[in-house]
Amino acid sequence: MYLFDxxxxxxxxxxxxxxxVLARLQHIPQEQQFVSTITISEIVYCAxxxxxxxxxxxxxxxxxLPAVNIIGFDAKAAYICGRLRxxxxxxxxxxxxxxxxxxxxxxxxxxxxxxxxLRYFGRIELLKCESWI
Length: 133
Fold this sequence. Notes:
Layout: E1 2-4, H1 6-12, H2 19-26, E2 33-36, H3 37-49, H4 53-64, E3 69-71, H5 75-90, H6 97-108, E4 112-114, H7 118-121, E5 128-130
Parallel strand pairs: 1-2, 1-4, 2-3, 4-5
């Protein structure tokens, strides 16, 4: 099962998306493709700040979301997120809260996080990550 980070989803709707991402998606059944409510929030936020919010929201609602399963930030993910945040702060390193929430969802559901930010998410030992770009 795969959880797509924001950078992967936004890559898909670029004028020239990554051929590797598109090829990998063709081999993953839709029932194994997930996006978190946190990622949806990030995309909406960026869309609203853009020069073409209607275009980006339309792409989200009519292209991206119908193609994936949506998973929320539940209590199990929240516990994991809180622990990760405290552990990383003790080590003197941190991640954005939204990214920790996404990581918490991935770990709680035993998903592989698909992201181009492996160096960033690689600080989380329990998190399984892949980059398709």
